[in-house]
Amino acid sequence: MLHRRHFLSAGIAGTAALTLSSGWTQGAPSLGAPTLPAPGFRKTQVGDIEVIALNDGVLRRPLGEEFVRNAPIEQVQALLARQQLPTSHVDIPFTPVLVVSQGGKYLIDTGFADNGPPTTGRLLGHLAAAGFQPGDIDHVILSHYHGDHINGLRNKAGQWVFPKARVHVPAPEHAYWMSDEKMDAAPPAAQASFDNVRRVIGSLPADRLAIFEPGATLGPGITSQAAFGHTPGMSIFQVSSRGQSYLYLADVTNVPALFARAPDWAVAFDMDAEMARQTRRRILAQAAQGQMLVGGFHFPFPAFGRIAPVDQGYAFTPLA
Predict the structure, then answer these.
(1) Segment (H or E) for 5
(2) Is 10's pLDDT higher than 70?
(3) How does 31-68 read in b/e, with b if 16+ C-beta sit within 10 Å?
(4) Is 293 exposed, middle or buried (0-12, 13-18, 19+ CB in 10 A)?
(5) Which residue, 96, 225, 214, is CA-closest to 151?
(6) Which of 192, 196, 248, 310 has the most crowded CB, counting CB atoms within 10 A?
(7) Euclidean distance between the first and the last CA atom of the chain, given in angstroms as a whole number
(8) Model confidence over 308-319: pLDDT tens digits?
(9) What span, in angstroms and rounded, lies between the C-alpha atoms of 88 and 249?
């Protein structure tokens, strides 16, 4: 078992790959290109509230020893093989969620806009296909400050993508990434992540930034919940209406075929591996016991489905 400090250092360094497009690699050409969902949006109803998955794209990356930090690559490949999945690479989708209710239109996480690799940046096209424009978005809710979740707020030209939206951010997450002390103490490889947060969030006008404590209600039927570990202040969100619920898991588990099936494994991007493990165990158990509709930012499209216990972990079954 690796020391927690090693995981923290490795995890924070790994966040540099989640900031700007230069941090991503598309993978070797021999791996081929990922299949992008078509159509790239999916609507579902939670009581009186409409929830829409909006795929921003998919990244194919080689599966190396660094991706799962506390399991041998042979075990990782074996788990994928048992699920009839490729063992040479992983496909990582990016899927924000739009919540439409009488209280307004709430976009949860943003994807890359035009700041990401070639197979990303699809969100606005899929938003239009679903019947909405960027100016329709009243609120943006951010689960955490990794680049693939926040960079879609601004395009390369520096313009705000959602011009009238108020941006809601978790207080502990904001405090961490905006701390000069934390930035100065971070390894050099992580400086880009702090710089990126300041580029995207630091320039947000004060009247458009709403800082919330985990547990707060963010809109009619939308509540937040602490999910620390992947980052210091990550939050997840539950949408409830008329006795029905949907739980947006953000990055509680990255690739569910790995980190839901083996919840004790740590993805390279978990900043505090032990806390992330405890959070993952707790929230996956909560979702399974409640038989809730769930989704995650990196879940296979349509990123709506159910969690059920299997072996020592959980399996995610997407909606048909």
Answers:
(1) helix 4-14
(2) no
(3) beebeebeebbbebebeebbbbbbbbbbbbbebeeebb
(4) buried
(5) 96
(6) 248
(7) 39
(8) 999 999 999 999
(9) 26
**CA dihedral sign, ordered 70, 91, 52, 172:** positive
What is the C-alpha to C-alpha distance for residues 263 and 44, in angstroms, rounded to an integer? Answer: 27
Tokens of 130: 């679903």
The Cα 76–Cα 264 span in angstroms is: 12
Assess contact for 46 and 177: CB atoms under 8 A: no
In this structure, are residues 38 and 24 in contact, taking their beta carbons and an 8 Å threshold? Answer: no
How far apart CA 1 and CA 4 sit, in angstroms, is: 9
75 is written with which tokens? 């075990």
Tokens of 287: 């979702």
The whole-angstrom separation of Cα 268 and Cα 62 is 13
> Mind listing the pLDDT tens digit for each residue in 168-203?
999 999 999 999 999 999 999 899 999 999 999 998
Cα distance between residue 247 and residue 242, in whole Å: 15
Distance between CA atoms of 201 and 71, rounded to whole angstroms?
35
When pLDDT is cut at 50, 70 and 90, the band that residue 1 belongs to is: very low
Phi, psi of 270 (to 5 degrees): -70, 120
Going along the chain from its start, the domains and CATH numbers come out as 4-318 (3.60.15.10)
Instruction: Assess whether pLDDT exceeds 80 at residue 12.
Output: no
Distances (CA, A) of 188 to 10, 66, 191, 299: 11, 18, 5, 30
Question: How many other CB atoms sit within 10 Å of the CB of residue 136?
Answer: 16
Helix axes 273-289, 4-14, angle to 10 degrees: 80
Mean predicted confidence (pLDDT) in 25-52: 88
Cα 81 to Cα 209: distance, rounded to the nearest angstrom = 45
